[in-house]
Amino acid sequence: xxxACVVLGMALxxxxxxxxxxxxxxxxxxxxxxxxxxxxxxxxYATPLVLVALGVSVALRAGMVMVGAEGQMIVGAVFAxxxxxxxxxxxxxxxxxxxxxxxxxxxxxWSLLSGVLLxxxxxxxxLSALLADYLAIELLAYLLRTALRDPxxxxxxxxxxxxxxxxxxRLPVPGRLHVAALVVLGIVLVALWWHHSxxxxxxxxxxxxxxxAARLGVSPASIVLSTTAVSxxxxxxxxxxxxxxxxxxxxxxxxxxxxxxxxxxxxxxRNHPVGIVVAAIAFASLTTGASGVQxxxxxxxxxxxxxxxAVLLLAVSVAVVLTRRNVAVRxxxxxxxxxxx
Amino acid sequence: xxxxSLDFWVLVLAGALASATPIVLAGLGExxxxxxxxxxxxxxxxxICGALAGVLGSAAAGPFAGAGFGVLAGVLLGFxxxxxxxxxxxxVLVGVALTMLGVGVSTFVFxxxxxxxxxNLSVPTLPAMSVPGLxxxxxxxxxxxxxxxxxxxxxxxxxxxxxxxxxxRFGLRIRAVGDSPDVAxxxxxxxxxxxAVAALIAGGFAGLAGAALSLSAIGSFxxxxxxxxxxIALAVVVVARRAxxxVLAGALLFAVPDSLGLLGQTRDxxxxxxxxxxxxxxxTFVVVCFESRHRMRLRQDTAI
Amino acid sequence: xxxxxxxxxGALRVAIVLAGLANxxxxHQIGADGVRKFQQDGEIELQIRESVINPVDAxxxxxxxxxxxxxxxxxxxxxxxxxxxxxxxxxxxxxFLTTGGADVAQKATANVATWTYAAEEMGFLLGYIAGxxxxxxxxxxxxEKQPFVQAQWFGFSQGLRLANPAAAExxxxxxGSFEDAEKANQATATRIREGxxxxxxxxxxxxxxxxxAAKTAGVATVGxxxxxxxxxxxxxIGRVRVDLVPLMRGVLDRLKSKSFAxxxxxxxxxxxxxxxxxxxKVATAPDVPGDLDSRVDDLVSRLAAGKLAVExxxxxx
Amino acid sequence: MDTRSMTTSPVVALxxxxxxxxxxxxxxxxxxxxxxxxxxxxxxxNGAGKSTATKILAGLETPDEGEVVxxxxxxxxxxxxxxxxxxxxxxxxxxxxAGELTLVENLLLSHSSWLARRRAAADSLRRAADxxxxxxxxxxxxxxxxxxxxxxxxxxxxLAQGARVLLLDEPTSSLGPHEVGGLFARLRRLxxxxxxxxxxxxxxxxxxxxxxxxxxxxxxxxSLHGNxxxxxxxxxxxxxxxxxxxRTPDRPKRTVGPVxxxxxxxxxxxxxxxxxxxxxxxxxxxxxxxxxGVAGNGQRTLADVAAGVLRPSRGxxxxxxxxxxxxxxxxxxxxxxxxAKRSAVLRRLTEPRFARFGVLxxxxxxxxxxxxxxxxxxxxxxxxxxxxxxxxxxxxxxxVGRELDGAPQVAVLHxxxxxxxxxxxxxxxxxxxxxxxxxxxxxLVSSDVDEVRGLADxxxxxxxxxxxxxxxxxxxxxxxxxxxxAGLST
Lengths: 341, 304, 317, 490
Ligand SMILES: Nc1ncnc2c1ncn2[C@@H]1O[C@H](COP(=O)(O)OP(=O)(O)OP(=O)(O)O)[C@@H](O)[C@H]1O
Ligand SMILES: Nc1ncnc2c1ncn2[C@@H]1O[C@H](COP(=O)(O)OP(=O)(O)OP(=O)(O)O)[C@@H](O)[C@H]1O
Ligand SMILES: [Mg+2]
Ligand SMILES: [Mg+2]
Fold this sequence. Notes:
Chain A is mainly α.
C-alpha cells in the first residue's frame, strides 16, 4: 500500500512536471546501466559505498550505529593528503600503500574518539560520531584555507593536486573505475568470510548480551574498540580512494555524503556483504540514473530527480521486505512439508 | 563592547533564543517519536517542507495560518513515515528517503512558484512580543524586548509534551510502546496505531519547526534554509535523554555557543572562523562527556 | 521550462551544468541567464542541469552531454575545472566552458574555454556604490569564507574608501553557509543593533535573511538582487551583476565559425561584463545621488584608462 | 463446589480450538471452559500448549480452527484490547510490565480514564496488593524489580483491574511459599465473588490449595478434565506425561574441597532497588550454598556479582575456574532472536570443532544443539527455531542444560527450575546434585524454600541486601528462616 501511495504521489509529481513514468524509468536505466561508461560509472559510485557500508556493518553487529563515516572519510583523506604532500613524489609502489595506510589511520583514529568515549564514559556513540562529523568538516575547511591551500590560487578552497604517482591507476574500462575497486572486491571476499566467522558471531552476541561475549574471553573493550576502528579505517580508506582515485586533490566535498549513504547501504543490505554490494549498486544507480532521467525527459528539474531517488529508495526497500517475507514463508513451508513427510 | 560585556551576552542570548526555537520544536516531536521506540532521520526533509508551506500559507492567509500550514505539511510527511514503517521498512531507510523527498518536493514547488526572474515571495512574519516587566530591566532588558511567538510556544509546548508524556494515559502508552512493543501489546495497547500517531505528531512538530524558520523573522523561503537543523534536533534529543524539558536545555546548550560563534567574529578573538563555527559542536561534545562521566560515577558499578 | 525545441534547424546544442539552482538569484542564475537569452532568441537548443553540487557527480554529466553530441558543455560551478579538463581530454571534438578562479585562466586548451571574473573589481564597484550612499558604518554578512568571496570583500573596502573615505567598516561575519537564511538574519540583526547603517552581502541563498532583518530595522543593504525578496526591493541600493551575454556571444560566434580554441574569458568592469544592476532608490538610503549611473560609468572608464587600479587580493591575507 | 460447575454458565470458553506454529501443533481440538466462581487449573508439560491456549483467550493469538466463546457468543478477538474490553485480565508468562514504567503506571496503561491519576491508581493497587498479602514497591521502574516482584506486581495489577476473568500463566513460578499463601487466599475470595480464574502452574501441591477444576494438556490435546477433588496426583501426572516421574534422589555424600567462590565484603548496586551491602560468602568445591530471602532483597545483585557479570563498587570477588550462570530472567542468558542452536552453543563456542577456517560451522552447532536438546529434553528438538519462540519451560531447560553441561567449577543458579514441569524440575535438581558431586561450587538462589532446603548444604538468608542469617541445612528451622526473611533476626 505504501508503495502504491508513494508511487501515486510520484506519478502525480512527474505528471505535474509534464512527463510520464515509463520515459523516466527508461531514462533512469539508460543513465545507470545503459552504456558501458554509465554502468562503469555506477560501479565507480558504488565502490566507496561498499567499503563504507562494510565497515559500518561491523559496528552495527556489535550494536553500535555508526553515523561517523562522513567525518572519518574526511579525516582519512586529510591524513592521506598530508602524508603524500609531505613525502613528495615517490614511486607509486610506495605512494599508493602509503596513502591507503594514512587514510585508514586517519579514519580509524577519528572513529576511536567515539569508541573510547563510549567505553570510558558511555557517551552515546551516535551523538559523538555526529558531532565528530561536524568537527571534521570544520577542520577540513580550516586546513584548506590555510596549511593545505592550493598555492596555485583557486576560487574555491582546495589543496594542490596530488603528484602523478600518488594517483590510483585506472582500470582499462570506459569510465573512471580505478584499480582500488579490485581491492574493494578483495575486501568484500574477506568480509564474506568474516560475516560467517565465529568471531563475527561473538560480536553479534556482544551486541545483544555483552556478558555472554565477555565470558567467551572477548572483552567489551576489545570488541568496541576493534569494531569502531575497523569501521573507521574502512571509511578512511574510502576517503583515500576518493582523493587519489577520483578527485585527485582534497576539497570540501571529498566525502560527498558517501559516509551517510554508506550507513543506508549497510542497512539496506542487511549487513550481508553480498546484500551490501547489491544495495550499493542500487543506491549508486539513484545518482547516475538521475542524469539519464534529465536527458531523457529534458523537462524535469533536478528536484524531481531527488524525489525520484526517494521513491526508488522506498520501492527498493519495500521489495527487500517482501522478498524476505516470501523467503521466510517458503522456508517454513518447506519445513512443514518435511514434517508431514 | 567587549566579549565580556553584558551587552554582548545579551545579543548572544537573544540570538540563541531565536535559533533554538526550531530545534526545540523539532526536538519535541522527535522526543515523542523516540519515546514510542522509533527515530526519524527525515526531520530535515520535513522541516524544509514546513518552511515552504509556512510561507505559502502566510501569503494566502496570514502568518498564523502559515504556521498551521507548516504543521499540516509536517503531518503529511509524518504520514509517509508511518506508512513506510508499517510496511516494514527499516526506519533508517524511511528517514533518509523522507529527507530526499522533502528536499525534492519543496525545491520543486518553490521553483514552480518562483521561476527564474520572478521575485521571491515575502510574506508577513509572526509577531514578536516583549516580556512585560523583564524587558524594562536595565542591562538585560533588551533580551526580553522582542521574543517571537513561536519561541514562547516552544517553551509552552515543551511543558505540554512533558505533561502529556507523564500525566496522560496516552503518554504512558507511547512510553510503553517504545519500551517494549510486545509487552505493550499484551497490556492491550495497539502498538502500530500509537506509533503512527507518534509519527504524525513528530511530523507536525518538525513542520512547525520549519515554519518557525521561515516565518519568525525572514518571511521568505530559500531552498537550503533548514541548514542541517534536523540533524541537530536529533542530536539534541540524545543529549536531552529524551526528556521534553531536557530538549529545552539541550537546544540552548547548542544554540548559545552557536550564536557565540557567529557574534564572536565581531570581536577580535584571534580564532580562525572555522573554530568559531565549530564552537557549538565542541561545547556540546564536552558537556555531554562530562555529563556521561558524572552519570557513570553516580552508579558506581559497571555491568560487564 | 529549461528546454524548448530550436526555432531554427542547425541551432547549436548547449548544455549548462549548475552547482545550484537556476533561480537562486545568484551565481548559478548568472550562468543560466547567460545562455537562456540565446535560447529565447532561438539561437541555441539548451539543456540546464541544476544542483550538481559535487564535481565527482558532475563529471559523468559532462561526459553524457559530450557523448550525446552537444556542441558546447558549460560547467558552471567553481570546483568543476578538474572534471571539465578530464572530460575534455576524452572528447577532443566536443567544446567546453569551465569556470574557476584566476588559476583556470592559464589552463584553457584547444577545446576548453575558461571563464572567471574579477572578484576584486566586482567588490570594488559594489564598495563604490555603497560609499555613494554616505551610510556608515558598513557591515559585511557573508556565507562561507572562501577565496573568491574574500577577494570580493577585499575589493569592496577599496571601493568604499574611494567613494566615502569617512566610512567605517565593521569586520565581516561569515555564517558558514551560503544557504542559511536564518543565521544571516541573526548576523544582520546583530550588526544593525551594533550600529551598522548599511549591510553588504551577496545574492546567495542566505540573502532573504539579510533583507528581512534590514527591512525590519529600516537599514539599507547593498549587493542583493531585487528578486531576492520583496523586502530586498525596499532596502537594497543596488548590486554588481555578471552579465555573461557579451562573452557568451563571442563564444557562440566562434563555435559557429569553427574558431573555438582555448579562450580565457574574464568578466571585468572594463569589458562591461560586470555591470551595476538592480539600482533602487530606497528610503533607507536617501543620500544615494541621482546620477549614480554616470558616476559608475566614470569610474569604469577611469579604471579602463588605467588611472585607477584595484589592488588584487592574495590568498592568506 | 461440585454443583456450581453444573449450574453456572461459562464466561469464556475455547471450543474445538486448534493452533499450529510452523512445525509445531501447539493445540489440537482443545475445549476449555471457564465459569464464574471457579478456579480452573491448567496443567501440562513444558511445551504442552498452556500458554498458547491462554494467549488465544487473551486475544494475543488467533486460533486456526475452532472458536472463542464469550458469554455464549462466538467472538473474534483481533487484539488484546478486544478481550480487555470483555473483562479478561492476563498475567502473561513472559512478563507484561513495561520496564520503564512503574507498577502504577503499568496499571494506568489500560485504565479507562485518559488522565493518569497516579494517586488513585496507587491506592487501588495497594488495596489489591494488601488484600492478597503482597507488599509492593510502587514507585520504581519495573525493570528495577526482580522477577518475583514483577510477578507479584502483575498479579496486583490484574486484581486491581477488577477483571471478571483472570488468566494467570505461571504466576507463582518464582514466588516463595509466603507470597503464594497470601495470593491463594485472595484468589479464593475473588472466585467466591464470581470471577472466573484460569491458573497455570507446575507445582502440584498448589492445585489442591486453590483449584476447583483441572484440565491437563498433553502435546496440545486435552488428556484429562475433571474436578480436582475427584482426582489424585498420580492421575494428573499420568495425564501430563503418560508415566510417573522418578523420585528426587536423596542427597548423596559429597567430598568438600577448596574454596572456589569467595565474596569479600562486597557492596554493589545492580539494577535492583536494594543494593548488596558488605556481603561475604565462601563456597567450596562440592558444596551447595543456598540463598533464601523475600524477592527483591539483593538476590539478583548477589547472583550477578558472583557470576562476574556485575563489578562490585567495593569488596572483592574471587572465582576459580569456569563459571556457569543461570540468571533469574532467562532471556538474559539467551539470544531470543537467533536460532536455538546459537543460544545452545554459546558456552562452548570457542572449541575448535565449531569452526572451520574460522567460519562458524552451522552443521556442527546444529548437531551439538540437538544432542543438548536430547539430553535435556528441550522440545521441539529443532535447533533452527528462534530461541524466543520456545515455550518458557523449554527455554529454561535449554539454558540450565547449557550451563551445567561440562562440569563447571562454579555454578551460580538463580531460580533454575522456574517454569519447569515436574519431570524437568526433577531432572534439573539431579543435574545440580551431579555438578556438585563432580566438584562444582554451587550458589543456589531460589524462592522455593523446599528446593533450597532439599539441595543445599548450607544456607544464607538475605534481607535488605545483607546476610541476615546463615546456618547448615541440618539446622534448618522454618521459624528461624521466616524471622530472618522478615528481617527480625539480629
Ligand atoms: N515487564 C516485565 N515483566 C516481567 N518480566 C520481564 C519484563 N520485562 C522484561 N522481563 C524479563 O526480563 C528479561 C530481560 O528483559 P529485557 O527487556 O531486558 O530483554 P532485552 O535485553 O531487551 O531483550 P531483547 O534484546 O530480546 O529485546 C526477560 O527474560 C524478560 O522476560
Ligand atoms: N510464536 C510461536 N512460533 C512458533 N512456535 C511457537 C510459538 N509459540 C509457541 N510455540 C510452540 O508451541 C508449543 C506450545 O508452546 P506453549 O508456550 O503454549 O507451551 P506451554 O505449555 O506454555 O509450555 P511451558 O510450560 O514451557 O510454558 C511449543 O512447542 C512452542 O515452542
Ligand atoms: Mg528489549
Ligand atoms: Mg507457557
